Amino acid sequence: MSKNILIIPGDGIGQEVTTWGKNVLEAVADKHGHSFQFDEGIMGHVAIEETGSPLPEETLEKAKESDAILFGAIGHAKYDNDPHAKVRPEQGLLKIRKELGLYANLRPILLFDELLEASSLKPEILKGTDILFFRELTGDVYFGEKNKAEDGSFASDLMNYHRYEVERIAHKAFEAARHRSKKLCSVDKANVLETSRLWRDVVQEIAKQYPDVEVEHMFIDNAAMQLVKNPRKFDVVLTANLFGDILTDEASQIAGSMGMLASASVGDGTGFYEPIHGSAHDIAGQDKANPLASILSAALLLDIGLGLVEEAEEVRDAVAHTLKEGWRTIDIANNATPEEKKIGTKQMGEFVLEQLKK
Ligand code: IPM
Ligand code: MG
After folding, report:
1. Which of left, alpha, beta for 205 (phi over 0: left; psi -120 to 50: alpha)?
2. Residue 183 CB neighbour total at 10 angstroms
3. What are the pLDDT digits (tens) for 160-191?
């Protein structure tokens, strides 16, 4: 198979971790006789510094022409504490999601048994958890009209959804549920929000086309609580952009760390594969970041993006083996297991590569 893959490392630890996602893709290509051509693009703070724009036209063009995109992270502390900044790194990510029509963000909560002790939640609560989130990604309050009074006394972000936006992601989630345990939980705030009542109406309508899937509707506040009380009760979770953003950060603690969670953003064209974590400038460039979310994002690129299911499984197995041997970056180390060995970004990446090449 011959494919063009665009690498967008982005900001902060994005640079370090994406190196390993890319190395893994190269190793897979070598091993299986595929030919991946890599190109690189800039986005976020690095792009603002270089061009003034968080998403330069050149990066967008390269993205549209590629077969798949592996992205790192976005953001810089400098903007977080400056509410008046006109240009922000995150605008680049939101724009590329919109431009590429990436309306469905799949976030699997993949729990490795070796990391049961790394979570702050009790292992007996976590064991056996396997959740697949479908977060809507190009609508909601993220993209609604924004307003701000000149004198700074008022601001608003419009939360809105069109029926078709809910329909298309609902279909994706129902299809997935069909191939998993045939259970789907739709999360909204229909007791308060008009957008959520539309959401629920559409999901109920679409559910009729999937009579084999058992549907539950849950309010976001309750879902946030149930997720840590009994995560095993969830399988496919379907939710809106903002709720999904918050709920998946919470769910990352089930997997032990934000540094473990990969995601696939898909929709109309080229897919975009990215860790759910941020740019973590506090540890950037110090060989401390966990490269596994990027490596697992590369695995999603392989199976969801390119249909290379076996190759993706090999990557996940290589990660599992590395963890089994006790290797831990600091975010997943908990000092509870005597055989645990703390290492940095580079070594973790190298060990996974070693396993993969076996
Ligand atoms: C995510 C991130 C982004 C989001 C930010 C960086 C804009 O938190 O992918 O979850 O809110 O969608
Ligand atoms: Mg987020």
Report:
1. alpha
2. 15
3. 999 999 999 999 999 999 999 999 999 999 99
Out of 80, 249, 303, 317, the active site residue is: 249
Catalytic option among 189, 210, 273, 331: 189
Inter-residue contact 25 to 36 (CB < 8 Å): yes
Domains of the chain (ranges; CATH) run 1-103+258-358 (3.40.718.10), 130-253 (3.40.718.10)
Task: Tell me the CA–centroid distance for residue 88 and ligand 1, in Å.
Answer: 13
Nearest bound ligand to the CA of residue 12: 1
Q: Which tokens hold the place of 84?
A: 């008046």
Q: Any residues with CB less than 8 A from the CB of 261 and at least 6 apart, and which?
A: 107, 108, 109, 110, 248, 251, 252, 255, 275, 276, 277, 293, 296
For a mutational test of ligand 1's pocket, the pick from 13, 71, 90, 258, i.e. the residue with the most ligand atoms closer than 8 A to its C-beta, is: 90
Q: Structure pTM?
A: 0.96
Query: How many beta carbons lie within 10 A of that of residue 140, not counting itself?
Result: 24
CB–CB of 69/238 below 8 Å? no
What is the rounded distance in angstroms from the CA atom of residue 313 to the CA atom of residue 211? 30
